[in-house]
Amino acid sequence: MRKYINMTFLIAAILLLFVIVAKIDVLPAIGDIDSAPALHVSKYYIEHSVQDTNSPNMVTAMIVDYRAFDTMFETTVMFLAGIGVIMILAGRPKAKNRIVQPKRYFGHRYKLGDPAYKTINKDVMITLIGPLILIYAFYVLFHGEVSLGGGFQSGALIALTYIIDILVIPDKKNLFMMTGKNSASIAGIGVLIYVMTGVVPMFNGGSFMDYTYLPIPVHAAERHAIGILLVEIGVTIGVMGTIITILNAIMKRVRFDDDTDKWTSGK
What we know:
The chain is an all-alpha fold. The chain is built from 9 helices and 4 strands; from the N terminus they run ααααβββααααβα.
């Protein structure tokens, strides 16, 4: 009963928030070219982003330059989410006591002797696909400054490689392995790289996240580009480490048993 009461209050609060926002007309209409953001902020970004950030990608310039402080906290929140998962699952039963066994396969019940996969050899597929995804992840990372991509996408792709490598073929020699502590530490290192990229210019006469003051012996515009790349690398490491940390925390407490002979014969 208490659960339904809490849900009712939550829905009522959300509806009230929408009503208040609609009544006081705080936000500009979507697509309104005469709104303050369209007349001032957006116009400045369009006209000055390349000159200010030395990045031809306006989206990258906004995310890791104009609003780099905000993006830093987004990366930090992801890292804290991974730590939160570890803390929540700390007291849960271990994997040997929690086995997830699929009940159906392509709409049919498993039968003794059925192959786990009815497609081409999964070992060959993962061996081929894994390195290709990694190559694309690094392309997305280093190309994000000038085109589509960036640290969040790259980190997710690297973590995806780890996930399919561990879950699909758990018994073979994997491309890379991380324990829960190592992945959490790596995620923290990613956040640290981001923060230090912003702090170091302060010791060189600049302000926080002013990449122009990085102590690198190149042209000022190039220092700005290097600063953006360092931030993207930090985001990539942070996102990758966080996703793998969450996966490791779950895998310690849930075992995905793919041996059809064992669980169809009742062992």
